[in-house]
Amino acid sequence: YPIEHAMSVEIGLYTRAGARYENKENNGITHLLEHMHFRQLGDMNQKDIYGTTELMGTSLRGTTYKEMLCFNMKVRPKYLEKSLDIFEKILTTYDWTEEQLESEKKVVINEIYEKDEVTLEIIYDKAIWRKNPLKRGILGNEKNVKNFTLDDLISYKKEVFSKNNVALVVTGAIDEEKSRKIIQQFGKIK
């Protein structure tokens, strides 16, 4: 979506995923999947991901909500192609290692311990959503996180990162020609 007089481009990848679509046994898998994208994206390791985005004057942000997994970047127009390459890698990366997974599990379990307090949000969610999956938090629990395998993560990603479940939004300082090229580039991804 071009915006006249915009000086930057906002790119967002939105996937229908999260606690609402998880069950008791896989609660937390979306959040772990989000984390894994910051470990490795295709040929880019964690250092490359952070270094590349910082050199562009931006950062790749990932957020897991109860109903959505999002990745966002805001860039100067001259970095649009480089940024789109990163988003393409988000969609096509499935080759993480067991070592990366085990390392990221520790990070997520640490998050669970840090957030291990009863808050009004938790009380409200359990009271309002009772039997609905929305009563669950996005982090899952330690047992679930420890039990997730690389195969679980890859199967889940293939399920939720499907064409009918993902939206790529590019808005700001782009024109119609760039929009068509983006549609072609991302339309070819399986």
A few lines on this structure:
The protein has helices at residues 29-36, 46-55, 80-92, 98-114, 120-129, 142-147, 150-160, 176-187, and strands at 9-15, 40-41, 44-45, 61-64, 69-75, 166-172. The chain is an alpha+beta fold and 190 residues long. Helix 1 packs across helix 4 (98-114).
Tell me what the structure shows.
The protein starts with 8 loop residues before the first strand and ends with a helix. The chain has 190 residues and is α+β, with helices and mostly antiparallel strands. It has helices at 29-36, 46-55, 80-92, 98-114, 120-129, 142-147, 150-160, 176-187, and strands spanning 9-15, 40-41, 44-45, 61-64, 69-75, 166-172. α1 (29-36) crosses α4. The model has no long low-confidence stretch (mean pLDDT 92). The protein has a four-stranded antiparallel sheet, with helices on one face. It is globular. The longest helix has 17 residues, at 98-114.
